[in-house]
Amino acid sequence: MIQPVLARFGAVLRDGVRIWWLAPLVPLLVVVPEGAQHVAEIRLGFFESRAAAAALADDPRRMVWGYLKIAGLLMAIFAAIRFWATRGSGQAWWNPRGVAWRNLLLAIVLMGLTSVPGLVLQSSIGSEFSGWIDIALFVATLPLLALLIAGLAGDCDIGLKAVFRSGWLTALRVLVYGAAVWAPLAWLHTQNHQWAMGASEWAVWLLMAFDTLVVGLLATMAGTALHHGYSTPPNARSSEVEPAPAMASA
Questions:
Q1: Do 158 and 150 meet the contact criterion of CB atoms below 8 Å apart?
Q2: pLDDT digits (tens, 9 = 90+) for 126-181
Q3: DSSP of 144-157
Q4: pTM, rounded to two decimals
């Protein structure tokens, strides 16, 4: 049981890097706005000191690229899922016709609805308790994560009922793989900003150039982890864990 899981995760680490030359447009979706934001930040003097960073945090010349970066990050993650899902099938990963839109939209809507109770009750019970409600609903609806990836992967054979009946382990594996690659890269991303504060100009430029690549890798690793957690890579086949067929037949 452990060996196939580790083999899958090894494929995540390999393919999260390999996608950079197999489909360079995928990381560029977030690398471009991330790099542009860093250029704007450096020109504004954002990294001159922590006080300057606090004062310029909401500057529209910085924030416009921040919004584009977040959009680019989501697009790059989704694109990475699409790329691996369509690889070897003859489909183009950027073609929206290959998306199982019913599963994708249903997952997005239901995920959005799970956040409503916490938001509605926050003013009356406080942010701490509403946060616990959010966590409980996230855990209770964890298979929606598998349904979301199924939609992006173009898997029409799996529905809402099937994913809640037999998709728990798949969703848990997706979550673990995603967290395992996200946490260290997100930490490094944060540290790059901390290291840049008050540094010399050339050091700031180097750190932010490196950070741009880190954010691109964050997106490709996350998208690859989500896909590989959902679907078995060819070099990690095991009869013990075949999520998609099991769920499709449910």
A1: yes
A2: 888 888 998 999 999 999 999 999 999 999 888 899 999 988 999 999 999 999 99
A3: HHHHHHHHHHT--S
A4: 0.87
Q: Which two tokens stand for residue 6?
A: 């580790």
Quote the CA–CA distance of 188 and 207 in Å, as a whole number.
11
Calpha distance 11→105 (Å, rounded) = 28
- C-alpha 79/C-alpha 56 separation (Å) is 32
Copy the structure tokens of residue 205: 């430029």
* Sequence-separated (6 or more) residues with CB below 8 Å from residue 236: 4, 7, 8, 10, 11
Pick the more confident residue, 200 or 235: 200
Tokens of 35: 């790099």
Q: Which residue has the tokens 């977030």?
A: 30
Chain mean pLDDT for the chain: 89
243 close to 232: Cβ distance less than 8 angstroms:
yes
Question: Do the beta carbons of residue 30 and residue 24 sit within 8 Å?
Answer: no
- Read off the tokens for 167: 């998709």
Q: Which tokens is 70 given?
A: 């977040």
> Which residue bears the tokens 């083999």?
7
In terms of residues, how long is the chain? 250
Dihedral of CA atoms 65, 68, 74, 77 in degrees, nearest 10, equals: -70
Q: Single out the residue of 5, 39, 8, 23 nearest to residue 208, CA to CA.
A: 39
